[in-house]
Amino acid sequence: MNREEQERRGFFRIDDDVALSYRLVPSSVVSEEASPLRMGEGYPASLANELERMREVSRIHFRHVEKDLPEVARYLAHLDNKIDLLAQHIVMDSDDIFVKSTQAVNISGSGIAFIVNGALNVGDYIELRFVLKPSLANIKTYSKVISCQPDNGQFRVAVEFTYLSDDDRDLLIRHVVKKQMNDIREHKTL
């Protein structure tokens, strides 16, 4: 296994369901427009992304409140759930990528594999957007196709994230770890 393959495998991978859309882009667009510095400029974070980041920051404070004032913590958790519900409805109504159905993917902090109807060429670049559930965090990245294999009349394509902001990568890694922990808990209770 070469160094690049080892780095790609350096992240946990999970099976998940996400709302996803992509479009082919020429490599010239990726190299000219998507430098790591420019990817963050003019790319506003979604409401769900900002709420998720805020939740991470406030988690430590919440634990202190929960320890000292459990009733206040229950009330704050209830308010947090209300905010999540409102954000969920706003995102579902306003985000053109969000669809009522999702598709199965295999995802990590370095790439994603999913099913497409038409074949893509290895080396093609795509602009990829996907929405994580249940947080509805919206991730946008330029990615490079690293494999495309026939799969029951469709194609299973695997892409490597070429340009992904540090904030989005952190959000994605936290999502993968949380999902993995939830899957382990569910498996133990069975």
Q: Would you write up a description of this structure?
A:
This protein has about 190 residues and is α+β, with helices and mostly antiparallel strands. The protein has two domains: about 5-45 and about 95-190, Thrombin, subunit H; about 45-95. The chain is about 45% helix and about 30% strand. The protein is built from six helices and six strands; from the N terminus they run H-E-H-H-H-H-E-E-E-E-E-H. The protein has helices at about 5-10, 25-35, 35-40, 45-70, 70-95, 165-190, and strands at about 15-25, 105, 110-115, 125-130, 140-150, 155-165. Strands 1-2-3-6-5-4 form a six-stranded antiparallel β-barrel. Helix 4 (about 45-70) packs antiparallel against helix 5 (about 70-95). The protein is elongated. About 20% of the residues are buried.
CATH second-level architecture of the largest domain? Beta Barrel
Number of helices: 6
Which structural class do you get from the secondary structure elements? alpha+beta
β-strand number? 6
Q: State the CATH class of the largest domain.
A: Mainly Beta
Helix content: 40-55%
What percent of residues are in strands? 25-35%
Compressed to H and E, one letter per element, the order equals HEHHHHEEEEEH
Describe the largest sheet. 6 strands, antiparallel, barrel
- For the biggest β-sheet, the strand order reads 1-2-3-6-5-4
Q: Low-confidence segments, ≥5 residues, pLDDT <50?
A: 1-8, 36-44
- Rg for CA atoms: 18 Å
How many domain modules?
Answer: 2
- Mean pLDDT, to the nearest integer, reads 80
The third-level CATH topology of the largest domain is: Thrombin, subunit H
**Please, what is the CATH homologous superfamily of the largest domain?**
predicted glycosyltransferase like domains
User: Per the principal axes of the C-alpha atoms, what is the gross shape?
Assistant: elongated
